[in-house]
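Supplementary Text 2. Reproducibility record for the structural model of the 266-residue chain.

All settings were left at their defaults, and a single model was retained for analysis rather than an ensemble. We include the record here because the model underlies the residue-level annotations in Supplementary Table 4.
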Amino acid sequence: MPMTQQAAPAVSAPPASGPKKETDGRTSERPMWLRLLARPEVGVFLGAVAVFVFFLIAAPPVREAGSMATILYQSSTIGLMALPVALLMIGGEFDLSAGVAVLTSALTASMVSYQLTMNVWVGVIVALIVSLAIGAFNGWLLVKTGLPSFLITLGTFLILQGVNLAVTKLVTGNVATNDISDMDGFEGAKSVFASTFTIGGVGVKITVFYWLVFAAIATWLLLRTKFGNWTFAVGGNKFSARAVGVPVTFTKIALFMGVGFGAWFV
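Retained model, structure tokens:
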């Protein structure tokens, strides 16, 4: 008998690809350099570079290493205060009392140390407590009254300005505090907050390193933690943030206390 030959299975042809999807300018991926330029921090960096280059050309003394160290020191004292204020502004608020709070903290540390004849570190700790209390007061008053932070901190600014003059005059009999450079603990506090490191033969203040470290911490806190998400949320819309479970009161007060910490550290 002839053997029945089985037909080979037909190979199905691959489906024809459909027409290629056309893209317009809105859906096409932008080049890397355009995406970088779209980031706000890149614009700030380019502006800083432009200013730096301008002064390098227009002011020859800026090219000296010693002058650069001085510029970095001045920038660090402003930057240390700007970091917590920037976080507060992202949270939707503003603090006008930050500058005068720096003086309040310094006067507190000096007067507590000298007038009570105590170690300078005691005055430093008391000044920290006072600075945090000022920030907590601003935040508490904000959430309790609902007034704009501009008005609340303007009032705090005027109050602190008067208190600084009145208390200093009352305690020391003058508008300035006494010299505490020869008191116990002064050298230790100076080494922590105002020491100088030599790099390449140039003296660099320790506040420059603190500035860089705190900038890194603030970036991590804002972009990698739950508190950073809360900060963005309350800055966008505090009512929506509260509706999804964000502790608005805690976040606002904590941000104001951060400004108080910055005023103490500076």
